[in-house]
């Protein structure tokens, strides 16, 4: 699933950055941007699933709630720090034309880090309150409750419950206002984006329970069926004549749209399981799986070759065929980078270089 998120991210960024002229008004770009709505929810959802997997392992190692909370919160803080570092790097590379406010933009890495910190606190609390026998059920309930509360609070926090008294860099983490006076849908604030991580947390603890480990295929199918039910429920609720919120925006803040996207994510999870178990993913080398193993690295690097000073093509000045060729080059470059990261023992290479340097020094 991370590999799919990477490919969707590549095509969205490449066409958005490079297409120009009539191509920017084409249906093709519209559908490209529509596909671009999936990578961020996928990355956050999978962060929650991975969080559940690691937490489950720590529970089986008999670590207590405090130790698990500290360990997972520190990992989230590391990702958050990487998010800040990424913003500093982007600002320095774009020195001279990037506004200083870009340093405080709420990007996907920041939100993944914050999500992990929040999940660590919630899971730590639940592990303290629950008995060992029902800890998995309690953690699933915590994930569902966390996703529900965050999604449910999003509409008022973007409209009637806004906090304009906060400095905009802080309010931006609540609703993505940045320095533009109104919430921006292209940013990744806590509300609603961290709800996807909590949804992944719930799904992860469902998949990693004892019964589901034995009946993995049935569990994934049930989750996929649940995703389909969420999609239909979302559309049914959206078409009701009465809406709970005074300001209703289905495509940006509505819990109904969040429900729709979680349903799509669960459907993708089912398709990914089938692909890896019985499809092409089980036949040998899979570029998708390979990219997914280094998703953070390829995310970080490809931005510079698409939006940064090292862009492979002139920005907003290319026809569709040239932009597509650029996309293919980006895909191959990132795949080779991923292979270099995972297939080469860099510590061994470094030791070999040091030995050669020592051997090359003249004897005293």
Describe this structure in words.
The protein is built from 15 helices and no strands. The protein is mainly α and 364 residues long. It has one domain (2-360). The longest helix has 29 residues, at 65-93. The radius of gyration is 22 Å and the shape is globular. The model has no long low-confidence stretch (mean pLDDT 90).
Brief synopsis:
The protein is an all-alpha fold.
SSE diagram, text form:
Elements (H helix, E strand, L loop, with lengths): L1 H17 L8 H9 L3 H22 L4 H29 L14 H22 L5 H24 L9 H8 L14 H18 L2 H5 L1 H23 L16 H23 L9 H7 L1 H12 L13 H24 L2 H15 L4
Helix pairs in contact: 1-2, 1-3, 1-12, 1-13, 1-14, 3-5, 3-8, 4-5, 5-6, 5-8, 6-8, 10-11, 12-14, 13-14
Q: Which structural category do the helix and sheet elements fall into?
A: mainly alpha
Instruction: Give the terminus-to-terminus CA distance.
Output: 57 Å
Count of domains: 1
- Order of SSEs: HHHHHHHHHHHHHHH
Query: Which strand-content bin applies to the residues?
Result: under 5%
Number of strands: 0
Provide mean pLDDT, rounded.
90
Q: Whole-number radius of gyration?
A: 22 Å
Total helical segments: 15
